[in-house]
Amino acid sequence: MASLTAAVQTSRSGSASSSKQRSGMTTQRRFRLLDNKTLVFLSLASMLHCALADGKTLVLLDNLNIRDTHSMFFRSLADRGFDLAFKTADDPSLSLIKYGQFLYDHLIIFAPSVEGKIYIYFLHLIQNGVFTFMACDPLRELGSECGIEFDEEKTAVIDHHNFDVSDPGEHTLIVAAPENLLKAPTIVGKPTNKPVLFKGVGMVADPENPLVLDILTGSSTSYSFFPDRPISQYPHAVGKNTLLIAGLQARNNARVVFSGSLDFFSDSFFNSAVQKATPGSPRHEQNGNMDLAEALSRWVFKEAGVLRVGAVTHHPVGETTPPAAYTITDLVEFSIVIEMLSEGRWVPFDGDDIQLEFVRIDPFVRTYLKKNGGKYSVQFTLPDVYGVFQFKVDYNRLGFTHLYSSTQVSVRPLQHTQYERFIPSAFPYYASVFSMMAGLFVFSIVFLHMKEKEKSD
Asked: How many CA atoms lie within 13 A of 197 on its CB side?
């Protein structure tokens, strides 16, 4: 582990002084490591650009036995094209960065003994969206930075109404119903009726953090506490607020997933049948752990839910090229190509809720884009206001990367030759002018040709 810290510290020697101070403070403080049977921290942050499945992946393990106990999960990654390199956390030859370049496209950490002080470097990776990594360890401060708070050491999620028949008696082997999953097929996969097995620690999310995703929650009868102690105080997490799996997509599209259970990804859980201990409960020969784990890995490694902007065009209706500057009240056409990554290929995105805004500080026009073949387009009239505007598409939907496109244009007023010769609203004034001219003409004729009668003597 010391070699991992040294490798990252060497690459970060040019960091700002504030980062050094924070790292120094973290070095002086180590986190308490929780029992790896009751708590797992799973974090996956993905690259800003598309992370295709052909990237080299470092799998950091506490011991090589985890490679065997979680072989099905690793095999699913290898079958999808990931090049997995397994190493232990205390490997002296371990290096993440060389000559300022990242040696791996993705980093998977299944090492409960990794010291918590390394979290500051992973925060840096999340903030820059450069690395993809998976960690399983109670790095509490990293969770706090992402809006997730873990329960205390040696606590577990307990549910006296939704536990498996194979539970030893503590009611900590939870059977989570598929209804408790986040309603986002891009993240959790297609809807299914398979329950999920879970045994681990509970979490709660920061209600003021809008980026946190409640991927899998406990039932209304669940809570997090010490399984071997009577309840003497209000539990850390209760009911639907108990998070079993949580996630976050940062504003730079980096993705993070937290799981309270390492066993969730194990072969024993993948192959286990599920049946609630309550009388009359049906038996499921296959649980939903493997499907959910695969869906989460696809989302986090950016194999799913990735959008990109293609060609963006705008021009007056009837023309094909944009002018140097538009004129107020012009009829314009805007089009944008939006693509989605599917099975390693970019395909047209199918959406009916994409909006276009024509903005000058505030939106003057907001309208839906209509799908036309492989692109989205719309025609609208520019406002009767001149200035510097932007064609802006800001698409932010659950499970998808944040899509943003902005094109700046100028809108000028009418030239003096473009104004109407006669304005309809001025017709009364025109009538008054011509009536005065006609009156003057009549008066002139009368005045010039009227002759006074001569007075008789």
From this structure: 27
Tens of pLDDT, residue by residue over 373-409, are: 779 999 999 999 999 999 999 999 999 999 999 999 9
Q: Which domains does the chain have, with CATH numbers?
A: 2-300 (no CATH), 307-412 (2.60.40.1930)
Whether 269 and 167 have beta carbons less than 8 Å apart is answered as no
The alpha-helical segments, DSSP class H, found in 30-184 are: 65-69, 71-79, 119-128, 140-145
- Provide the whole-model pTM: 0.79
Residue 121's pLDDT band (cuts 50, 70, 90): low
Tell me the average pLDDT of the chain.
Answer: 82
Three-state secondary-structure class, residue 289: helix
How far is C-alpha 163 from the geometric centre of its chain's CA atoms?
Answer: 33
Type of residue numbered 389: F
SS3 content of the chain, % helix, strand, coil (to 5): 25, 30, 45
28 vs 101: CA distance, rounded Å: 28
CA separation for the pair 289, 296 (Å, rounded): 10
